[in-house]
Amino acid sequence: MSSLGGPNIVTNGLVSTLDAANARSYTSGSLKWNNPVNQSLSGSISVSSATTTMSLNTNPTALYISQSASNSNNLFTCGLLFTENASIELWYKTDTTGSGFVSQFQSPGIIQVGSYASNASLTLWDWSSSTPGQHNIRTFVNNGTVWSHTVSSTVNYSDSNWVEKYHQIVMNFSGSAGKWNSYNLYIDTVLAATINFTIPFPSGSIAGGNTIYAPAANGGSARNSYGMLRQYNKTLTQAEIQQNYNATKSRFNL
After folding, report:
1. Which domain covers residue 77, as residue numbers?
2. Does the residue 2 lie in any domain?
3. 198-212, pLDDT tens digit by residue?
4. pLDDT tens, 38-63?
């Protein structure tokens, strides 16, 4: 596999690839997830808590991070290259069934831009609310006031079509004048949610710096696999998202 994550993916605008199956990007046992495209956007993996372990799974190759109890740490972090138009693509799987979480704090986080509970951050949650066996995927945006959220529409999945299957998650950001104004979420090539920000995201005010996080479940447990994360300095079209999905899906047994 090439350093760009595959021979047929969209390469125009690609600025970062973290790939668990690429020896230039990850070595088994390491707590460093290298970005061969841009080293400044490399990632680090956190297993400092006694409740968190990490291993390299095979078939398909992915980082498997297991959190056995409540933990407010992040599972991994990497740099974000802020551009007015941007896309983040994550190949992700969870083994955590929907057990009836009562709030987003107990539910497994999927991916996050900026520090949560701040004045400018965005978090994609697997929040099953009070319904066992259900996964309500929704985005929380802090856009100007701490603990003041804009919440996206919810995409519902059952355990049978969400758990133990890899999913392509694409977060699209659009903006102008150095700010983000809107956000689209695609799951497995389908548009799942759209948010227009009340207060545009300025590059210098994303809480915690320009950082992407894989957040832990603050009040529960999580067993997540991360196969690949790509960043683009452009907004991927639906056709380009489909192209990446088609080029990558066989690796994840889809």
Report:
1. 14-252
2. no
3. 666 666 567 667 788
4. 888 888 887 656 567 778 888 889 98
